Amino acid sequence: MKTVLLEPLVISPDVLERVSGFLNRNGHSFTAYDTRVEDDETLIARSQDAETLMVGNLPLSAKVIDGIPNLKMISVAFTGLDHIDLDACRKRGITVCNCAGYSTDSVAELAFGFMIALLRFVVQCDQVTRECMTRAGFIGKDLKGKTLGIIGTGAIGMRVAEIGKVFGCDLIAYSRSNKAAAEALGIRYLELDDVLAQSDIVSLHLPLTDATRGIISREKLGLMKPSALLINTSRGPVVDIPALAEALDNKKIAGAALDVFETEPPLPEGYLLFDKENVLLAPHVAFATEEAFVRRAEMAFANIACWLAGKPQNQIL
Predict the structure, then answer these.
(1) Of 29, 78, 134, 138, whose Cβ has the fewest other Cβ atoms within 10 Å?
(2) Which pLDDT tens digit goes with each residue over 276-316?
(3) Do the domains at 2-102+290-308 and 104-281 have one common CATH topology?
């Protein structure tokens, strides 16, 4: 069997050998590409004769999937799957497994980094200190005692809630379904509008679906407190960016921090949020820690090993 890793996983050669070595030891062929390309023809050429394929967040179109005749399984070293044409996989009966959970702690930690940086003006304070100025105008706020509204109580949303409880936040949430574990933690489930209206900080932890695309709209932003902060470490298109820019300009909310956008960074010059006050932007790094990359590599190759053994894990299709 031939396995192809189509993009680097940002791990050391030693780690790659450790997690993939079982393939060669068991008589399988393994090819790993250390450059990332996105044009369909090159991806098809690199994947010829592959039965199993591994990618991170590299887009796989129907053209690519249909251009690999022997393909039977895709191991996605990522949580989200909106970059994979699942309909094409479904039509051909291709198994798809992901690595949900590898970056749960990493994403949750960045969400709190964003919160504290906004509440305490960390970036601005660094700048004025370097300019030999004082704290004037930068008296911050505590995280303790704030109402933290969590939109989506999946694994990451739950981890955010756990950390928020340690910080002394009041926890409220909106999700498609209520979890007993969330309620045991002290989360109060409310309707989306109520969460937005009552929260001092709104942290988004939603998948991108037809139902969630643009869910944080102009109308919903209008429900938030003028003192509230919006944090998005989930999927960029769940937020209406022009509406967010307008809300920031009109002081409808106090600040925002985003790690994700309508498209993957680099963002275009003159992007709508570049000139907004009290906004933090990061180039999709929430999942990107050394520890998380090792965890996802271990999971991604374990997915292939389990599939080979007839016991697929983390299976989406």
Answers:
(1) 134
(2) 989 999 999 999 999 999 999 999 999 999 999 999 999 99
(3) yes
Is the bond preceding residue 266 a cis peptide, omega within 30 degrees? yes
Distance between CA 146 and CA 277 in Å, rounded? Answer: 22
Average pLDDT, the chain: 97
Buried/exposed 248-278: b ≥16 CB within 10 Å, e otherwise: beeebbbbbbbbbbeeeeeeeeebbbeebeb
Can you name the residues that pair with 255 across neighbouring β-strands? 229
The domain 2-102+290-308 having CATH identifier 3.40.50.300: the answer here is no
Architecture (CATH level 2) of domain 104-281:
3-Layer(aba) Sandwich (3.40)
The structural domains of the chain, with segments of one domain joined by +, span 2-102+290-308, 104-281
Whether 13 and 40 have beta carbons less than 8 Å apart is answered as no
Query: To 10 degrees, what angle do helices 155-167 and 104-119 make?
Result: 40
Catalytic residues: 235, 264, 284
* Cα→Cα distances 174→183, 191, 202, 253, 254, Å: 12, 6, 10, 19, 21
Q: What are phi and psi of 187, to 5 degrees?
A: -75, 135
Euclidean distance between CA atoms 38 and 54, whole angstroms: 14
Is the distance from CB of 250 to CB of 226 less than 8 angstroms?
Answer: no
Q: Which residue blocks in the chain are alpha helix, DSSP H?
A: 13-25, 40-47, 62-66, 86-92, 104-119, 122-130, 155-167, 180-185, 192-198, 218-221, 241-249, 290-308
pLDDT at 111: 98
CB proximity list for 32: less than 8 A, separation 6 or greater: 4, 5, 8, 16, 20
